[in-house]
Amino acid sequence: MSGVDVVRGQSHLLRGVDWTITPEQRWVVLGPNGAGKTTLLQLAGALLHPTRGEVQLLGETMGAVDVFELRPRIGLTSAALAQRIEPGERTGDVVLSAGYAIVGRGRERYDIHDLSRAAVLLQQWGVQAIAHRPFGTLSEGERKRVQIARALMPDPELLLLDEPGAGLDLGGREDLVSRLSDLATYLYAPAQVLVTHHVEEIPPGYTHALLLREGAVVASGPLSQVVTAEALSETFGLPLALERSDGRYTARRQG
Ligand SMILES: Nc1ncnc2c1ncn2[C@@H]1O[C@H](COP(=O)(O)OP(=O)(O)OP(=O)(O)O)[C@@H](O)[C@H]1O
Fold first, then answer.
1. From atom 12 of ligand 1, which residue's Cα is the shortest distance away?
2. Measured over all CA atoms, what is the biggest interatomic distance in the chain, rounded to whole angstroms?
């Protein structure tokens, strides 16, 4: 992204964003409510065009490419997408049908490669035992893992995760962080962007961070240089103390 603005009416949702992601990088995007994180992810997911500036995705320039060709190359999970999944849909089919970029299993034909890839992903994300159950009967943690398995099904080149830790209990969060950490360090995994409000959710193995406040980038670059008490305090607008131990971060208000 180069000099990107997103403007709606009088509001600047994003202003002057410059951001480059290379395939081996794993980025965390941090910022308070309303900072523009979801808007940034929609740009990265070819779901939104910038008002000004240029967005290049997977070698294509937005505005000069058919977004319907680009979108299957990008895996995305978000609360908005999760709401579109039919509660009665069989969990295994939620993952399987992603190969066709549809929600729910229709009359498509799945070959043995689709079926075995879905089976591997269900197993990797710990939801194989509940693959027969309707999606609506799953816990929040199980749903989050199914959505990530679904996003990975088309073997995307870029994986975008919008607040996958939201609504999870401590055990669910820790399980998710550890699975995301495994995915981050897997050599053939896609480039990854994880949006979160909480430094506790940064998976070990993530390499870079972008901090957003009021639509503007406060800092971006290698994780250890960007996720600092000073930069986080500026981003969230309150004095914060930060600790790092075994690759995990914790933050609390200072004073
Ligand atoms: N179509 C729109 N018109 C006007 N303002 C909008 C529009 N869409 C989003 N906004 C505003 O833009 C700002 C950024 O929204 P966005 O959802 O990107 O933030 P966010 O960082 O993801 O927030 P949260 O952490 O609460 O999910 C918010 O103040 C939101 O109200």
1. 13
2. 60
Burial class (CB in 10 A: 0-12, 13-18, 19+), 134: middle
| Residues 18-38 pLDDT 10s | 999 999 999 999 999 999 999
Q: Ligand 1: which of 38, 48, 196 to mutate, most ligand atoms within 8 Å of CB? A: 38
Instruction: Give the pLDDT confidence of 43-93 residue by residue, as tens digits.
Output: 999 999 999 999 999 999 998 989 888 988 999 999 888 889 999 999 999
> How many distinct structural domains can be found in the chain?
1
Residue 137 near ligand 1, beta carbon < 6 Å: no
Nearest ligand 1 atom, CA 212: 21
E strands within 121-226? 158-162, 191-196, 208-213, 216-222
Does the beta carbon of 99 sit less than 6 angstroms from any atom of ligand 1? Answer: no
Q: What is the pTM of this model?
A: 0.93
